[in-house]
Write a structure and sequence with these properties.
This protein is α/β, with parallel strands linked by helices. The chain has 2 domains: 167 residues, 3-Layer(aba) Sandwich (Rossmann fold), CATH 3.40.50.2000; 177 residues, Rossmann fold. Strands 3-2-1-4-5-6 form a 6-stranded parallel β-sheet, with helices on both faces. The protein is globular. The model has no long low-confidence stretch (mean pLDDT 93).
Length: 367
């Protein structure tokens, strides 16, 4: 897929920003500490973004085996990293001043800024007395670009997965990752609960993650209904997943099903921890571009992801059995917008047919 004008402008701004860093930044002369005992990683975006930083955490722990690694995250997202053996603690970002006060007490040797790569967050790291500050992953056009860093990564303008964007930050300080696989760790309690649930239903267990806050990424209820009807006729058990806020979207799909036997609606009824455990044990997951894709990738659960406005190169599944449908040669795709300038068409998702989804997902089940 060719880069849009917006992409070219972003590349230009990142290149110019790096040049300004080389010319004007007074912090770049500081050498990196020889002894790294405490590391801080900043990732303030959403669930999927947190999942794709797990290879960074593993590589940091491998390079600095005795170091404690803390992660600054959005409040309420602790469950993603709670049991990760490479993480010492998760620190919820509240306000700038409160978070700064917490960080100042810790005396971090190394700060890794992933997202957002902003002036504000780089200032937070400076004022928190972090000895050496590195960043940042690719950012949007309007962000500041981390002026207060000691080491700013050279712009990589090629299109690659977000895992690679994040790993580029630690490559800049000489860390070569050996394992890029995502890692998630559901609790033993969640595992027990999900295993008990699944024992009540027959194989294959097929998950449907259909809901999104962004309508442009949604597929069509009547098309889901065709796919689900096919699988229930094959005696599969279908598990709907999603948050409580997504119950209405899922309800529209279920209302179209002629037979609701073998349908298990877990929308709004699982914690994030339990969702991870559920997807871990599924025989197949069919999903739109969402964090469910990355959960499946972490556990090598066969997954088929439906892409339209977003781009699989950036956010595609990465496990042993990844697959996606993206009509790059047949439709208008990859705009990365939350609205459609051709709203009556929405051809990026509309062009995906139930027959394609059935054929491709069946192939995954046979592997």
């Amino acid at each position: 897929m060719l880069k849009r004008m917006e992409d070219k402008v972003r590349d230009l701004i990142q290149n110019m920003d790096y040049l300004l860093y080389l010319l004007l930044n007074p912090f770049k002369f500081k050498p990196m500490p020889q002894h790294i005992k405490k590391i801080l990683v900043v990732e303030l975006l959403n669930y999927g973004d947190l999942m794709v930083i797990t290879p960074v955490l593993k590589a940091l722990k491998h390079a600095y085996k005795e170091a404690k690694i803390d992660v600054v995250i959005k409040p309420g997202k602790e469950e993603i990293l709670k049991r990760n053996p490479n993480v010492h603690a998760c620190i919820p970002y509240t306000t700038f001043s409160e978070t700064k006060s917490k960080l100042q007490k810790e005396s971090y040797d190394l700060g890794i800024m992933l997202h957002p790569g902003s002036f504000k967050i780089s200032l937070l790291l400076l004022l928190s007395n972090i000895k050496y500050r590195v960043g940042c992953a690719k950012t949007g056009i309007t962000y500041g670009k981390g002026f207060f860093l000691n080491k700013k990564i050279f712009p990589n303008n090629q299109w690659q997965h977000k895992i690679e964007d994040n790993l580029d930050v630690i490559r800049a300080i000489g860390i070569t990752p050996k394992d890029k696989h995502l890692e998630l760790f559901p609790s033993a309690a969640a595992e027990r609960k999900i295993k008990t649930l699944l024992k009540k239903y027959k194989h294959p267990w097929v998950g449907i993650s259909a809901a999104s806050a962004h309508w442009t990424q949604q597929w069509y209820p009547e098309k889901y209904a065709e796919v689900i009807t096919y699988y229930t006729q094959q005696n599969a058990t279908m598990f709907f997943t999603g948050t409580k806020e997504e119950e209405q979207q899922v309800g529209r799909i279920i209302s179209l099903l002629p037979n609701k036997e073998n349908i298990v609606d877990l929308t709004g009824r699982t914690t994030c921890d339990e969702l991870m455990a559920l997807i871990r044990h599924l025989d197949l997951l069919i999903t739109i571009d969402s964090s469910a894709t990355h959960i499946a990738s972490a556990f090598d659960t066969p997954v088929l992801t439906l892409f339209g406005p977003t781009i699989p190169t950036f956010w595609g599944p990465t496990g042993k059995n990844p697959s996606y449908i993206w009509k790059e040669k047949e439709a208008c795709v990859g705009c990365r917008r939350y609205f459609c300038i051709y709203k009556k068409d929405h051809e990026c998702m509309k062009s995906i047919t139930p027959e394609e989804v059935i054929a491709k997902s069946q192939a995954l089940l046979k592997k």
